[in-house]
Specification:
five-stranded parallel sheet; alpha/beta; globular; 30 strands; 661 residues; binds 5'-O-[(S)-butoxy(hydroxy)phosphoryl]adenosine
Length: 661
């Protein structure tokens, strides 16, 4: 009901489309591609929707099973839960590593790791990876962990992150990775929520040459997490680190004498593989559950088809998004495909804004997958920087995480891809596990700014408020009406929340939270979130999370977070704050509040601006009308304000914003 109100009251941000050209796939790409033209795409898509058993059944042999499934999917509980490859048994890590070694590819490079400092590099072949995974796997076994237990991982983008994930998956231990840019408080919350037995972290992380502590920050908080029995700490930056006797140990000490071989556990197709927390409209971030076989097959297949992965491909996913992108397209997809990839610890601006271009040149990257916020940032630095580098190895470019404006698309296409690399603008979510809407590089004619068409197994629709289908070009709610193998199986232990968040708004259909329209050619145009979720530099955050962080400060009575359009970050975070009566508003207090949010959630949640206000626009039932504040900071029409309890405040806030901006 809440969404329905929003849709009618609030106009979705209109697309900034200025580029009307359509770019056909380059013939050289189509020739080699797994999907070569639209006719082939259409035929395959039709089969995937009309006969999922047949379509996904053909992919059963794309992985190795301990026991092959006899049932491709079970829709008896769908919606909301479809189960895939139901009675199969397998092992994730075996499929990501051992299988390639058994096929004679042990010496193939799995990961070229490039540190924050360009001189800091590591190369891991599939053989190396297996040794490391086994060593750490034996540590987990020695600690008494077993199938179904949970571990929390708070590590920077270093090989140990991948090693830990795969070591856990080798025994059916469920991992929950926390983005290194989040605060220690977020780590604590996730440990408590998941009841994790072990935390794997590092002394710190390098970011643009600076050492940022990790372990030290979480140390005290671990007194409040009784489920944690052990903490293993990677020495990454060489910071002095508090260690608790009997609980905390160093990674290098732990693995020192461990055998480089280890057994693996048989896991059921529908056993959970990982939990990943993501922000929604209400409450604390929710733990999205992904299971094993369906997720893996979808991860590998989508990676192969969408990025057109072949035996010699070098894939580089840089997306500065510490979440699902990393799981599906840095860990599981590429490694299941036995591919070679580049993993990067640092940021695009260090030591200079040429860093990505240097990496592409150095490793002869063929497929580069990043986020629009990075493209916009680098575009601002001018084309001289990429032009200094040989980027001719590139074949395919990818974009993920937020809307890519046609200007950034064109720059990416012309300056980076030299008009010979298709851009796959991939739409998906933590919940979907893998890419859902995307062009296929050898088949789909590209319209800049459109994620184009659904991937195999995905049926996407745009609906009106009342659930009827929107007309071509009419803006509405994006829903998915099919079941797909990588779909989430739940949030936390809370089936009601799962049902209510995703399946009740349009009964039986997966509600994405995004607005979209479909043009007369069938191209899908994503228009951004319709709920109270922000996308700041591709990072997903709930307004309520940031508001709760602000209100937890003793000076704050009430807070409202609104997104302001930002040329690079997508959204900037604007905070309206009502202080408690006796508190004096000062600039120092603003700074303090920003730091407070930073400490509570992490640097990415820091408000860009804080406005102190005496009152905020509210409905008669006392709900803060964020859409009005959003209109004020974006200088758009505030719309109908007659239903407010205090309409006079709108003019005052508008004038105040104009004065202070
Ligand atoms: C939200 C999901 C996808 C993995 C990383 C983000 C936005 C994602 C696109 C795109 C426009 C996009 C949506 C979505 N989004 N991809 N290609 N074009 N918007 O996963 O953190 O779960 O965020 O990201 O708003 O709902 P996430």
């Amino acid at each position: 009901m809440e969404c329905a109100e929003k849709m009618s009251e609030e106009k979705i941000i209109t697309s900034l489309l200025t580029e009307k050209r359509v770019f056909p796939p380059p013939p050289a790409i189509s020739k080699k591609a797994w999907v070569k033209n639209m006719a082939q795409y259409r035929e395959m898509w039709k089969e995937s929707i009309e006969d999922p058993d047949k379509f996904w059944g053909k992919l059963v042999d794309s992985i190795t099973w301990i026991k092959k499934p006899t049932k491709i999917w079970d829709d008896s509980k769908f919606p909301p839960i479809a189960q895939w490859f139901v009675d199969g048994k397998l092992n994730t890590t075996y499929n990501a590593i051992d299988r390639h070694i058994n096929e004679g590819k042990g010496d193939k490079v799995a990961i070229y790791w490039e540190g924050d400092d360009p001189n800091d590099t590591r190369v891991l072949t599939y053989n190396d990876l297996l040794e490391e995974v086994c060593k750490f796997g034996n540590v987990l076994l020695k600690a008494g962990l077993k199938k179904g237990d949970k571990i929390v991982i708070w590590l920077p983008m270093i090989p140990e992150l991948v090693i830990t994930m795969l070591a856990a998956a080798r025994f059916g231990i469920i991992h929950s990775v926390v983005f290194a840019g989040f605060s220690a408080g977020a780590v604590k919350d996730r440990i408590i929520d998941s009841n994790a037995r072990i935390l794997i972290t590092a002394d710190g992380t390098f970011r643009a040459g600076k050492k940022i502590p990790l372990k030290e920050k979480v140390h005290k908080l671990l007194e409040e997490t009784p489920s944690i029995e052990r903490v293993v700490v990677v020495k990454q930056v060489g910071l002095k680190t508090p260690m608790k006797e009997g609980r905390d140990t160093w990674w290098h000490d732990e693995i020192k004498n461990q055998p480089t071989e280890c057994v693996y556990e048989e896991v059921n197709a529908e056993d959970p593989l990982f939990i990943l927390y993501t922000s929604g409209t209400t409450g604390k971030p929710k733990g999205v559950i992904h299971t094993t076989a369906g997720y893996l097959i979808y991860a590998a297949y989508s990676h192969k088809i969408i990025f057109d992965i072949h035996e010699d491909s070098i894939f580089f996913c840089s997306a500065d998004i510490g979440w699902i992108t990393r799981h599906t397209y840095i860990v599981y997809g590429p490694l299941l495909n036995g591919a070679t990839e580049v993993m990067f610890e640092g940021v695009p601006s260090y030591p200079s804004f040429e860093r990505y271009w240097e990496i592409i040149e150095k490793y002869k990257v063929n497929i580069f997958y990043t986020a629009p916020t990075a493209i916009r940032l680098l575009m601002k630095e001018g084309e001289e920087l990429p032009n200094k580098h040989d980027l001719s190895s590139l074949r395919i470019l990818g974009s993920v995480g937020e809307l890519i404006n046609p200007e950034a698309w064109m720059w990416y296409y012309q300056v980076i891809g030299k008009e010979k690399c298709p851009i796959v603008d991939t739409w998906w979510q933590t919940e979907t596990g893998g890419i859902m809407i995307t062009p296929l590089p050898g088949a789909t004619p590209l319209k800049p700014g459109s994620a184009s068409r659904p991937f195999f197994g995905v049926k996407a629709e745009v609906l009106r408020d009342d659930g009827t289908p929107a007309a071509p070009n009419e803006e509405g709610y994006l829903v998915i009406t099919s079941a797909w193998p990588a779909m989430l199986r739940g949030v936390g232990q809370n089936p009601q929340r799962f049902q209510k968040t995703y399946w009740d708004r349009f009964p039986g259909k997966y509600y994405s939270g995004d607005g979209a329209k479909i043009d007369k050619d069938g191209y899908i145009w994503i228009l951004g979130r319709l709920d109270d979720v922000l996308k700041v530099s591709g990072h997903r955050m709930g307004t309520m999370e940031i508001e709760s962080a602000l209100v937890s400060h003793p000076a704050v009575a009430e807070a409202a977070i609104v997104p302001k359009e930002h040329p690079i970050k997508g959204h900037a975070i604007f905070a309206y704050v009502i202080l408690k009566k006796i508190i004096t508003p000062t600039d120092d207090l603003k700074k303090e509040l920003k730091n407070h949010v930073r400490g509570e959630i992490g640097p990415i949640a820091t408000p860009d601006e804080i406005y102190f206000a005496a009152d905020l626009p509210k409905t008669r039932s006392g709900k803060i009308m964020r859409r009005i504040l959003k209109a004020i900071v974006n200088e758009t029409d505030v719309g109908n304000i007659t239903t407010l309890a205090n309409p006079q405040i709108v003019k005052a806030l508008w004038e105040d914003y104009q004065l202070r901006k």
